[in-house]
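Q: Please design a sequence for this.
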């Protein structure tokens, strides 16, 4: 990832609360995303970082929704287990909603996962969605959410981004 490229996308015409919001699965926290946050900080880019313990499977918090909407650049770090997290998928759906809002920029990063696997929802992504569908099969409202997550995943994964392997 190139922090200078991110800096060049920032517009200072709107009062953004944050320059960048990063959606990521905890599996990348102690390596790639820690390095990403450090690089953003070194370049003077203000990033939202929520290091609190999140309730597994719980609804996305209002604080996170506000951080997503209040961030100009939205980075999604797709990793092997990203789609297994309902929390990540809720963030992703909110991020996909922001694509149409002027001033927002969404940048996908494919970290040790094939962009094709994410786009086609195959491999680990297919397995994760099968598990979500099985888990929520008797809940029509949640099954609608699963469809929304699939659509958001396709929308964001089809954007131009970075393919990062073992870095």
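A: Design:
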């Amino acid at each position: 990832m190139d922090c200078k490229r991110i800096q060049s996308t920032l517009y200072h015409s709107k009062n953004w609360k944050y320059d960048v919001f990063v959606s990521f699965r905890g599996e990348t926290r102690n390596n790639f995303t820690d390095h990403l946050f450090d690089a953003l900080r070194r370049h003077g880019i203000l990033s939202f970082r929520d290091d609190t313990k999140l309730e597994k499977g719980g609804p996305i918090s209002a604080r996170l929704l506000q951080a997503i909407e209040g961030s100009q650049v939205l980075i999604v770090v797709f990793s092997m287990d990203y789609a297994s997290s309902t929390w990540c998928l809720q963030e992703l759906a909110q991020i996909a909603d922001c694509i149409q809002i002027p001033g927002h920029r969404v940048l996908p990063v494919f970290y040790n996962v094939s962009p094709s696997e994410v786009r086609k929802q195959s491999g680990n992504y297919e397995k994760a969605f099968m598990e979500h569908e099985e888990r929520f099969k008797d809940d029509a409202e949640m099954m609608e959410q699963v469809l929304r997550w699939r659509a958001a995943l396709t929308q964001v994964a089809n954007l131009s981004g970075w393919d990062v392997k073992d870095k």
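Q: Thanks. Anything notable?
A: The chain has a mean pLDDT of 87. The beta strands are 18-24, 47-48, 71-78, 105-111, 162-164.
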